[in-house]
Amino acid sequence: MDYRKQLLYGEWDFFFAPTTLANINLAEVVFDKSCHVPNCFDATGEYRFKRGCGIYRKEICASGKIKLEIEGIGLRASVFWDRQKISEMNIPFTAEQFVFDAGKYGKHELIIATENTLDSSPSSMFHPFYDFYGYGGIYRDVYITPLPEVWVEFARVTTLDLKSGKVEILLQLGGNWQKGVDIELGFDNGKTFIVSGKSPELTFCKCVPDKREWTPDSPVLHSMQINLNGNLQEVTFGLRIIEINEGRICLNGKAIKLVGFNRHDAHPDYGYAIHEKLIRADLEKIKKAGYNFIRGCHYPQSETMLKICDELGLLVWDESLGWGNKITSLTDPVFCDLQQRQTRKMVRRSINHPSIILWGFLNEAETNVTEARNLIEKIYRTVKSEDSSRLVTFATMFGEEDLCLDLVDVISFNTYPGWYGNVDMQEFSPQAVLEKLRQLADYSSQEKWRNKGLILSEIGAAALPGDHSGLRWSEEYQANLLSTVLNEVWENERWSGVAFWLFADTKTYSDGRALARPRGFNNKGVLNEYRLPKLAWEVLIQQLKEKVQFRRI
Ligand code: ADA
Predict the structure, then answer these.
(1) Is 463 in contact with 524 (CB distance < 8 Å)?
(2) Alpha-carbon dihedral of residues 501, 505, 509, 515, nearest 10 degrees?
(3) FRET label pair with 69: which of 9, 245, 356, 473, CA 20 to 30 Å apart?
(4) What residues are in contact with ligand 1 under a 6 Å CB criterion?
(5) What residue owns the CA closest to ligand 1's atom 9?
(6) Which residue has the CA at smallest separation from atom 7 of ligand 1?
(7) Are 138 and 93 in contact (CB under 8 A)?
(8) Which of 317, 362, 506, 522 has most ligand 1 atoms within 8 Å of its beta carbon, as the pocket-test mutant?
(9) What is the pLDDT of residues 57-116, one digit of tens each?
């Protein structure tokens, strides 16, 4: 938190044009509408499902050097200050920041022109074949911060030792640090100490007084206050260590069983611009039901979402944007560069959230091809260079055929036995599911994978609300399948956890996949898109309760 930071929330002027950004002449734009930001202009109302440009304008009082932060747009954007282009944004969901001179004190005009047309070139960051809807707009919060002569640009707090509460602190300075700085720091608003430096980067270790561990059962947060020349910032963090011991994922030294959901940060009425209250309601539901794990599929999670997970004690897999990317993309230099950039940005932005235990990237890319190895290895290295304290993974759909599993810390399988592949199976039979899960667990138990964690990152079946036929597509079929999976993952120690596919039904496209995606939704949620429960929701809660009575998760 930065105490000078101003949230540009609320009413903005708006204009829609059914064209591309390249064809927009700002002088001809008439802002004839207004809307609330964050906003997905094509989620609802007049511009629902339209493709084109959503142009947003806000008047702002500012002067001198400022930092503009935009937490996420879709699918691309151009940013203008007083009609001068400051920058372009070409990675959906990724937070970007721009430092520039706002000019003399007074009213200025900020324009964020977004575009949601789909791009199928190899370098595209959002392909039309992705199985979630490509909305346009300003998905997340926008902030400005007036900057002093020198400021703390980045602060990272890493737990080194739980017993002593020892942490490593890294501070990176922006602005005119050459004269040397004295920074006053303190923990939990307690006694302060001074750190002096004459370089843009300072690293040192400290013990947190009155230290308390962060765990899912007791998610105690600490804070670090930073005072540089009277400008105050605060970093929230938790003391916890995540590691792999003999193939098991351990939190604070104890093996943990992760049980939870893949969750799209989306809502049918708001797209990806969903209000904190709705995010909180989802997360509290998950926590109260007894789960401890969320895979934020398939893009970086918002600061709001992560903050709530920190508070509730939910463990998070945060992943950068990707879906089924083909080898033509994985070997395309622009795509490779964007993937590395977005993953680095995700890690730097969210690094202090204790809830995040796993960094992921490139969901279901073509990692059964040797040429994919280069990019997988590069992204892995990028993440580790920013953060060696967490585990790194990607979700594969190729099982034993994957050629990149050796390159990451945790093997994560997406698999759909009993759903895809077994189309003749009308009534659920556990056999196919159990066989597949045992085969994957056995494969991952070989000597060469012994030190890797193992997660079932996706598994599920679609259920149409109200279908009680007991056959495929029914609530019963889904409940039976997921309940079989929960038993198996719980009993087999090789699995460190499961993220069921999916928390809530999610909007996708209704064209090419019409038969597999009735209503234009991915219907594998255990809740429908408005969060009304299907049978599986209740069945799994009961089952989990019984299991937890015998062993803690
Ligand atoms: C994949 C993919 C998900 C979703 C799922 C499904 O595993 O990662 O995003 O598309 O399949 O429902 O088929």
Answers:
(1) yes
(2) 80
(3) 356
(4) 131, 298, 363-364, 397, 414, 458, 501, 522, 524
(5) 131
(6) 414
(7) no
(8) 522
(9) 999 999 999 999 999 999 999 999 999 999 999 999 999 999 999 999 999 999 999 999
